Amino acid sequence: xxxxxxxxxxxxxxxxxxxxxxxxxxxxxxxxxxxxxxxxxxxxxxxxxxxxxxxxxxxxxxxxxxxxxxxxxxxxxxxxxxxxxxxxxxxxxxxxxxxxxxxxxxxxxxxxxxxxxxxxxxxxxxxxxxxxxxxxxxxxxxxxxxxxxxxxxxxxxxxxxxxxxxxxxxxxxxxxxxxxxxxxxxxxxxxxxxxxxxxxxxxxxxxxxxxxxxxxxxxxxxxxxxxxxxxxxxxxxxxxxxxxxxxxxxxxxxxxxxxxxxxxxxxxxxxxxxxxxxxxxxxxxxxxxxxxxxxxxxxxxxxxxxxxxxx
Length: 311
What we know:
Mean pLDDT: 86
Number of strands: 0
Number of helices: 13
Largest sheet: none
Oligomer: single chain
Strand content: under 5%
């Protein structure tokens, strides 16, 4: 007779194998750019099975994973509702956003169940796009918030011209399509106002220009919300944690770690300065990473139990 504890373990292993197979199938469907509504539906079905009551949840005996699945399902239902309500002009945006929700669900559930990380071309593409978009936003933010605010017509015209260059570069970039439709609309409105303000630089209306500058500064500050994208949070916390541990004992920054640290560009002003100056001394990086570790990694302990809004 098979002991009940051994039987329970065998049932759990079999259940984990079934879950891993379903997660892998979903990941492959994302890689193949499957229909977003079908992806969300399949992910929701898996979450419901994991949250229970179900034979799968009973076999897994992981209450924590069930709780995570319940939270993720709530997030996916919101994505499904927005996708169903999308109008033709926003359908593409909502489809891409829904796929990102599914990719995040796969990552979160895999982590909660203690399964190996799934290979995902779609997730890798998404990360590359988000990293590039963050760098674009950082360049725009520095052009607005970096220098001292303009104080007269001459400095205002010069500052607005500098910002217009960055907004044009962003609008013409491949990453522009990855912005939310609302962000694109706001950016286009700001670009139109920049064009009007700079139509005659010698006769610039300082009062109108000051209002425009305030709106530009507001947009720049809000652009930091891109750092809440799940794929960036996952990338950043992993690298910061790894680097903080490595540099605690190393006297030099290994080349491979330098390449990974460069992906943090746009996350933090102090880190950006180190990267732009090609500063690879351990001391400054230790200080910067300690601050980032306290700000990002420590609060993210057990982060798979929290679902933050997608940008």
